[in-house]
Specification:
single chain, 3-stranded antiparallel β-sheet, about 200 residues, mainly alpha, Helix Hairpins, 9 helices, binds manganese (III) ion, minor pseudopilin epsh fold
Length: about 200
């Protein structure tokens, strides 16, 4: 049984960059629904229920075919959002890891790449900073696809589904992304990089 993790801060704590109502619906409805559907899919396969979500997504080919897509979508949705909540913090943090400037020239170079990945993802999906064969890479995935399924380690993910920003920003995805940088928790990014 997978359970909805705590947000770790109040719904309104990321205001004005991300509004309270969006955070409430996003966490309590969207994320909760992914978990509910993931648990439902795993119901008839007890062997998989005790596995970690990371294992399920990394070894997606081992998942029984009849629930594979459900696990990819809803397991991905669960893991992506779990990472996402922890990657944000009220007021953000200034502690940008050196590895990022090294890999992308400087922080602005990284932000530009990540922003571009988010803006150009057509439809719903995620922009990612990932570790891939020990290199840092920026790319995007469709829907709730997890980088883990492609053998990459997610370090920082940006949700660009409309449900992540539509109430406040409507169709202005670039403005949402620009504001999102103000609440990124670089301490958590550093921690993930050092693992
Ligand atoms: Mn979302």
């Amino acid at each position: 049984m997978f359970v909805l993790p705590e947000l770790g801060y109040e719904f309104g704590a990321l205001e004005p960059h991300i509004d309270a109502k969006t955070m409430e619906i996003h966490h309590d409805k969207h994320h909760a629904a992914y978990i509910e559907k993931l648990n439902a899919a795993l119901e008839k396969y007890p062997d998989f229920q005790s596995k970690k979500i990371e294992e399920l997504l990394s070894d997606i080919k081992d998942i029984p075919e009849d629930i594979r897509t459900a696990v990819q979508n809803n397991g991905g949705g669960h893991h992506n959002h779990t990472l996402f909540w922890a990657s944000m913090k009220p007021g953000g943090s200034q502690n940008v890891p050196e590895a990022i400037s090294k890999a992308f020239g400087n922080l602005d170079g990284f932000k530009a790449k990540m922003t571009d990945a988010g803006i150009t993802r057509f439809g719903s999906g995620w922009a990612w900073l990932v570790k891939s064969a020990n290199n840092l890479e920026v790319y995007s995935t469709a829907n709730q696809d997890s980088p883990l399924t492609e053998g990459k380690i997610p370090i920082l993910g940006l949700d660009v589904w409309e449900h992540a920003y539509y109430l406040k920003y409507q169709n202005r995805r670039p403005e949402y992304i620009e504001n999102w940088w103000s609440v990124v928790n670089w301490d958590v990014v550093s921690e993930r990089l050092s693992k």
